[in-house]
Design brief:
The protein contains ten helices and 16 strands. The chain has about 350 residues and is an alpha+beta fold. The strands form three sheets. The protein has a six-stranded antiparallel beta sheet with strand order 6-7-16-15-12-13. Strands 2-1-5-4-3 form a five-stranded antiparallel beta sheet, with helices on both faces. β10 and β11 form a beta hairpin. The longest helix is centred in the middle third of the chain and has 18 residues.
């Protein structure tokens, strides 16, 4: 019955499929089924062999075999010769890590000595695994340390869906410290892919931020995205020797905040986002003086537009109030995280990112 052609069809199914006989010997498992369990599973054999079970003793006679949902639903199907169903929650070893697995097991008799099993939910589990992989990849794109070019900094990054469209970056060039904060349209995996584009396409060897943004805009237009796709960017260059902050902005509607002894300056520079709306737009780099002891902050709109249960937004005024009460960059990041958590109960409506520098 299960010749090569049928097996190829079953191997392409997103659901896990397995076939077994009245002695509970598994005759076939498809690719989705095998990917759901341990790396050393077999395509046929005992239940333990196809599940990658490491219980000691003969399959079905181990200390925990009575708790095995697969064994139970298969035995009931054979005994009653009827369709059986059960939901299983377990932990499996894959790729050197332990993954939680939830799936619904259905078994249907297909002839007197042969039974067809379906593990619905396997595809979802694979998607969750891919999401975990994407999260790990994106975390590797985040800044690594707490000091670059002699400037202390701190940041927080809280993606709405595990993988997000915000991306902070801090690096040194020619003895100066650069900070980049981008926010792409959308959320989730697609936004994460676009933020990875920013990481790769932004020229960190270009000292002029305006030129770097114009180059990024040109590269973005080569992607041929539709008009709903765009990227906002705040970029700063900290020149400690000259005591000058240079900055350029592309569509980022949250101002850069500079706290000094007189209070807080909101630094803005209206310009369109990185998009195909104005493909030849030339961005500008401006400058602003600072003194030792000042604190610089960049935010995404996930902070200012964070909404509480009453529909009220956190707003730039609350962010500035937190900054006024903060002693340094690290203190600000700790306080803004706490304030946002209290304000919205941890239910963020968008990716939340903030970067702060001790000047």
């Amino acid at each position: 019955m299960f010749n090569g052609r049928y097996k190829k069809v079953l191997d392409r199914m997103p659901q896990g499929v397995f076939v077994f006989d009245e002695k509970l010997r598994v005759k076939f498992t498809n690719a989705a089924f095998r990917r759901s369990f341990a790396d050393d599973t077999k395509s046929q054999g005992t239940l333990a062999q196809v599940l990658g079970c490491r219980q000691e003793g003969k399959c079905g006679e181990g200390a925990y075999c009575g708790q095995c949902a697969f064994s139970r639903v298969m035995k009931n199907a054979v005994a009653d010769y009827t369709e059986q169903e059960e939901t299983m929650h377990t932990t499996v070893s894959r790729g050197g890590r332990m993954d939680k697995l939830s799936m619904r097991i259905r078994v249907l008799p297909i002839e007197k000595k042969l039974y067809l099993g379906l593990t619905e939910g396997t595809y979802q589990t694979e998607m969750e695994r891919e999401m975990l992989s994407a999260q790990q990849m994106q975390r590797r794109l985040l800044p690594a340390g707490k000091n670059v070019g002699g400037v202390n900094y701190a940041y927080t990054y809280i993606p709405k869906f595990g993988v997000g469209g915000d991306l902070p970056d801090v690096y040194e060039l020619n003895g100066q410290t650069y900070g980049i904060l981008s926010d792409v349209s959308g959320k989730g995996i697609s936004a994460g892919m676009l933020s990875a584009f920013v990481k790769a396409a932004f020229d960190k060897k270009q000292p002029d931020l305006a030129v770097a943004l114009s180059q990024l805009n040109a590269k973005f237009n080569e992607l041929d995205q539709d008009e709903r796709s765009y990227i906002t960017v705040s970029a700063v260059r900290i020149d400690k020797m000259a005591g000058v902050l240079r900055y350029a902005v592309a569509g980022h509607n949250v101002p850069i905040l500079l706290k000094n002894e007189y209070g807080i300056n909101e630094i803005e520079s209206p310009a369109p986002p990185i998009s195909n709306w104005m493909p030849d737009f030339e961005y500008r780099e401006n400058e602003f003086p600072f003194q030792s002891g000042d604190t610089l902050v960049m935010l995404t709109d996930g902070v200012t537009e964070c909404t509480n249960s009453a529909g009220e937004q956190f707003g730039i005024e609350r962010a500035e109030s937190v900054l006024l009460q903060s002693h340094n960059a690290e203190d600000f990041i700790a306080k803004i995280k706490s304030a946002l958590s209290v304000f919205c109960g941890g239910d963020y409506s968008d990716d939340v990112t903030a970067v702060a520098f001790d000047l």
